[in-house]
Amino acid sequence: MGFRMGIVGLPNVGKSTLFNALTRTAAAQAANFPFCTIEPNVGDVAVPDDRLEKLAAIAGSKQIIPTRMTFVDIAGLVRGASKGEGLGNQFLANIRECDAIAHVLRCFEDGDITHVEGRIDPVADAETIETELMLSDLESIERRLANLARKIKGGDKEAGDQVRLLKLAQTALEEGKPARTVAVAEDDLRNWRLLQLLTSKPVLYVCNVEEACAADGNSQSARVAEMAKVQGAGVVVISARIEEEISQLAADEAEMFLGEMGLEEAGLDRLIRAGYQLLGLQTYFTVGPKEARAWTISKGTLAPQAAGVIHGDFEKGFIRAETVAYADYIAGKGEAGAKEAGKFRVEGKSYEVKDGDVLHFLFSG
With contact defined as beta carbons under 8 Å apart, do 306 and 295 qualify? Predict the structure, then answer.
């Protein structure tokens, strides 16, 4: 499993430029006018992880297969989108299918690129988008509550649970708070996610700054960072133009270019790491002569469920997991060396997989 991140924001904030750079494609037309993105563009990118290449080198793996992350470039929203303004609700629906929202905010000055509201204020822009998503959620909740009323009269328990959760969200939204601020009991989490409320999605603010500020940000991105801290949201500073240039260079040239710009890594790496942290994700590896492969799971995932990410039969017939921590695999120069050092372990169904674990699953077919 990777994860699916929707890229949202007002028109002309750099969403499509960032999408083009991240996916190394020209699928999304980047142009200086609103709504240049007519359909949501979807791009899969490999999640960069230096550990994978080191594992493959030791194991002599013929193929390296990183885990994937999906970006969805969603057309620019405008004030009134929840009531059909601009391109309206069709794009709000695309957000429901995403695990998280990367909210791109314009934190750069450029007289040649118009701002849809005629000013540069990323915090106000964030509030505009959040308001539209909240209004859309309220409308959706009211509609669903009306439809569920009939089922409640028939004694449908599942409908009763839905109504209870919808009303929790409704109360928060009416108080001007997004649904993600609602404290949901562990037993209700699955049903809560199924509601697919727009404002229940974790948010990562992406501050698009001018090239000169890519390393340290600027006063506008600092304001966004303060807002994100209050909200408990993620934040990352990126120059979409720099990312676009990097995406067209060979690996060695890209590294040199980053150094010249005073950057240690590409924005893609920072964005994915921030996204992983936001969603509580981690990576484990399977390594052998045929391939070295990375797999994404949630923190706290038990061994059988981690095995199920590879194939459902692995989870159903799970017997045990043989595992070596990444650092121990590297130190032992492979599984044999890790065994000699006493670092090879056999774990059962209750084992909680750790980030970087090198795993081999045994299962009954």
Answer: yes
Pairing of strands 281-287, 234-238: unpaired
Query: How far, in Å, are 140, 166, 233 from residue 169 at the CA level?
Result: 11, 5, 19
What is the per-residue burial (b if ≥16 Cβ within 10 Å, else e) of 39-53? ebbbbebbbebebbe
Pick 273 or 113 by higher pLDDT.
273
> Which residue type sits at 204?
L
Would you state the structure tokens that stand for residue 51, as one six-digit string?
Answer: 């550990």
User: How far, in Å, CA of 276 to CA of 297, rounded?
Assistant: 10
Q: How far apart are CA 242 and CA 254, in angstroms?
A: 10
Using CA atoms, how far apart are residues 330 and 228, in angstroms rounded to an integer?
37
Cβ count near 100 (within 10 Å) = 19
| CA contacts within 13 A on the Cβ side of 173 | 24
CB 132 within 8 A of CB 37: no
Q: Specify which residues 238 forms β-bridges with.
A: 208
| Each residue's pLDDT tens digit, 81-96 | 445 544 445 667 788 8
By DSSP bridging, strand 203-208 and strand 100-106 are: parallel
Greatest alpha-carbon pair distance for the chain in Å reads: 68
Give the end-to-end CA distance of the chain in Å, rounded to a whole number.
Answer: 22
* Beta partners for residue 292, in sequence order: 64, 287
How would residue 362 be classed by pLDDT, with cut points 50, 70 and 90? very high
Whole-model pTM above 0.90? no
Distance of alpha carbon 222 from alpha carbon 123, whole angstroms: 10
- The answer to whether 59 and 334 are in contact (CB under 8 A) is yes
Helix (H, G, I), strand (E, B) or coil at 290: coil
* Per-residue pLDDT at 27 exceeds 60: no
